[in-house]
Write a structure and sequence with these properties.
The structure holds 2 protein chains of 2 kinds.
Chain A lengths: L2 H22 L3 E4 L12 E10 L3 E8 H12 L8 H23 L7 E2 L3 E4 L10 E7 L2 E9 L5
Antiparallel strand pairs in A: 1-6, 2-3, 2-4, 2-5, 3-7, 6-7
Chain B lengths: L3 E5 L3 H13 L6 E5 L2 H10 L4 E5 L7 H10 L8 E5 L4 H9 L4 E4 L4 H13 L5
Classes of the chains: A alpha+beta, B alpha/beta.
Chain lengths: 156, 129
C-alpha cells in the first residue's frame, strides 16, 4: 500500500472511531484481514456523501438494519416510539457526514479549503458505484459495518 | 438571556443532537424553532423574535454561508448572533466564517461541552450582560 493511501486509511479509521464513540457511545473494532469480513448484505441502511473539494470522491457507509436500529436507540435515547426507517437513514447520513468532516480535517492541510456535497441515503441495495479505492471494515457489537471511498487512486 | 434559538440543519438527527447538547449545557428553558435549509431559516428569522441562530454549513436550497450573508446584510437581523456547526471546516474555513460574521464555529461531532463554551462566550458579550 502506498504511503498516501496508508495515511488516507489511517485518517478515515480515526474519524470513524471518534464519530461512533461520540454519536453512539459504541466502541468499534477494525478488521484488517478482508477475508475475515462478512459482507454487509442487502438488509441494510446506506449513505453516500460526495467530496467536492479539495479532491473529487465519495464516501459510502453501509450499516446492517439491526445495527442501525441500535444506533437510533443510542442517538434518540428514551423515546416511546421506535424510530422509523427515514429517521435511521438520516442518522446513518449524519454519521457519514461527521466521519467525512473529521477525516478531511485530518487529511487536508490547515490552509486548504474543503467542501462536501449533499448526502444521498437509502436502504436495501446500493446504487451502482464506481471502482472502490479504499474499504474500511469494522464491527460494532456483533454487527459488521463498512466504509468505502470511491475516487482518487492512491496506488500510484 | 437566550430564550429562542433557531436551529437550521437539513438533518433531523443533527437538529435533535444540537438541541439536546444545548439543554445539557444548561439552557433548559430555551425554546427552539427548526429549519431544514437556509431559505426556511431566513424566513423564520424574519417572522420570529430569535435570540440565536445555529446553522449547519452544508444544506440544500440555501447553504449556511449564504444564510449568514443574508442575516448580516439585514438591518433587522444584523445583530443576531450566528453559531456555525459543521463537519466540514478547518482553521482556514473557520477564520473565513468568523470574518463573515459568525460568532463561533463548532465542529461536529458536537458535545454539550463544545456548545456550552460557545454559548457561555456569547453570554459574556456586553449585549447579553
Amino acid at each position: 500500500m502506498s504511503e498516501a493511501k496508508s495515511r488516507f486509511k489511517e485518517e478515515l479509521t480515526s474519524a470513524i472511531s471518534k464519530t461512533m464513540e461520540n454519536m453512539t457511545f459504541e466502541d468499534v473494532t477494525f478488521i484488517d484481514d478482508q477475508e475475515d469480513v462478512e459482507p454487509v448484505d442487502k438488509n441494510k441502511y446506506w449513505a453516500i456523501l460526495p467530496i467536492e473539494e479539495p479532491f473529487k470522491g465519495e464516501l459510502v457507509l453501509e450499516v446492517p438494519k439491526e445495527c442501525g436500529k441500535n444506533f437510533a436507540l443510542e442517538v434518540f435515547g428514551d423515546i416511546d416510539v421506535a424510530p422509523g426507517d427515514e429517521a435511521i437513514e438520516d442518522i446513518v447520513a449524519e454519521m457519514l457526514n461527521t466521519v467525512t468532516g473529521g477525516f478531511l480535517k485530518g487529511l487536508v492541510s490547515k490552509d486548504e479549503t474543503f467542501h462536501l456535497g449533499l448526502p444521498q441515503k437509502g436502504q436495501g441495495e446500493l446504487p451502482p458505484l464506481d471502482e472502490i479505492n479504499v474499504s474500511v471494515y469494522l464491527t460494532v457489537g456483533e454487527h459488521s459495518l463498512c466504509v468505502r471511498y470511491i475516487g482518487n487512486d492512491f496506488s500510484e | 438571556m437566550i430564550e429562542t434559538i433557531l436551529v437550521a440543519d437539513d438533518s433531523s438527527t443533527a437538529r435533535m443532537i444540537i438541541k439536546r447538547c444545548i439543554e445539557i449545557a444548561g439552557f433548559m428553558n430555551a425554546s427552539f424553532i427548526e429549519a431544514t435549509d437556509g431559505k426556511e431559516a431566513l424566513q423564520l428569522a424574519k417572522e420570529n423574535k430569535v435570540d440565536l441562530l445555529i446553522t449547519d454549513l452544508n444544506m440544500p436550497n440555501m447553504d449556511g454561508q449564504t444564510l449568514m450573508k443574508h442575516v448580516k446584510a439585514s438591518p433587522r437581523l444584523h445583530d443576531l448572533p450566528v453559531v456555525v456547526i459543521s463537519s466540514a471546516s478547518n482553521k482556514k474555513i473557520e477564520t473565513e466564517l468568523i470574518e463573515n460574521g459568525a460568532f463561533a464555529v463548532v465542529n461536529k461531532p458536537i458535545t454539550p461541552a463544545s456548545v456550552a463554551k460557545a454559548l457561555d462566550n456569547l453570554l459574556q458579550q456586553d449585549q447579553w450582560g
